[in-house]
Amino acid sequence: MVWLTTVSPTGAPAPNPVWFLWDGAATVLVFSLPGAARVGHIHHSSKVSLNFASGGADGDIVVISGIAEPAPHGPAADQVTAYLDKYADRMAHIGLTPRAFAEHHSMPIRITLTRVRGRTPLPTDAAASAAGSATGSAQHGPLADRMAPGDRMSLGHRLGASPAPSEPGAAPVLHLIGCAAPPVLGFGEVVAAALADGWQVWPILTPSAARWLAADLPQLHLAAGRAVRSEYDLPGSGDPLPRPQAVLVAPATANTVNKCAAGISDTLALGVVNDAIGRGVPVVLVTATGADSSHPAYRRSVDLLRSGGVTLIEAVPTRVGDDRSVPRPPFPWRDGLAAIARLRSRSPVPAGSPLAPS
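Above: the chain's sequence. Below: its structure in token form.
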């Protein structure tokens, strides 16, 4: 059960407990009495919030904002198998068959999630959390115990289950940056991998990359547990980025490499990288380039950044005229994360490793 808060025409918040089904991505489904006040509220203002009761645990708090839309032509409650799997026993407990419940609660409401705030005491290792949810063997906090396995997996894995940066024992902060090159279309892969490695992920995209991934931003938000940044906030507004323990840029374009070498910070992504270099924070760039990787300015930029302590992993360039029928090696997301981990531990790079300086 979750608390759904709508807003009345007078501006008063109206919280109500509801049964819900999370699709594991960016949508929540609720079934309502068609004449319930919440339906009229949503017609007046589609902005809603969802939250779970804290259960007395100070850290067990999650508030989710979204846009709600009545879907009168959607499937009935007794036609949604996952919903019945979750609530059929509870329907029987209150004396209703699935058909009777569907006839009473005949108004589907779909809520598209737009923002997630809060934290839970789920395990920090998102991969272990997700695997444990699937098997039912993991020990979960009170919030997860109130959710079906699929919902636990979504919340634990997609929110990253990371403690707040200010808390003792908080997971290390990784500023994860994506630039506008084709591999960024798989940015969700490196977000999930970094969460599984135990990082708090703060995703940042260049403005062009943010436009490319516009349809994926809600899912990336849920995966990381925080909004994807792409623009500088106005002074004194927005939530400040925490000080990172590492910065990973993957993919990094030749344009980004050249601007970083020149100290140019005309986007938030570049500003974060340049600030980290200046502070001596470990920085790794995994490049995705084309013929511009042979430009003399690019080679000078690579040499300059490496001399300043930045690690560059150069993926195989893609050039105009390349035979696209020839399989290309996958983009080395994992090499970037391994390099970050090695820099943090200061362990030596094995001879012959692709991460060894050239």
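Residues 81-93 form the longest helix (13 residues).
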